[in-house]
Write a structure and sequence with these properties.
single chain, alpha+beta
C-alpha cells in the first residue's frame, strides 16, 4: 500500500504507507490525498520498492 501527496504546484509524491515524507521532497508543504489508492503503475511500484518514494513534477507532464 502507498500514500499519495500533492503540493501547491500539484507535484506528485508517492510514499510507502507508514513511512515519513522523505527529506528530498522537503520543498513546500505536502498534502495527503484523501482518495484511497488501489493500484499504481509498474514504474511507480518499482521506484517505491527501491527508493521508498516516487516523485514527479507537474512540469514533467506538461512537456510530453
Amino acid at each position: 500500500m502507498v500514500e499519495v501527496y500533492f503540493n501547491v504546484r500539484r507535484d506528485l509524491l508517492v510514499v510507502r504507507k507508514g513511512f515519513p515524507v522523505p527529506a528530498v521532497s522537503a520543498q513546500g508543504k505536502w498534502r495527503k490525498s484523501k482518495k484511497r489508492v488501489i493500484k499504481v503503475s509498474e514504474e511507480i511500484r518499482l521506484a517505491v520498492q527501491s527508493h521508498g518514494y516516487y516523485m514527479r513534477k507537474l512540469s514533467d507532464l506538461k512537456k510530453n
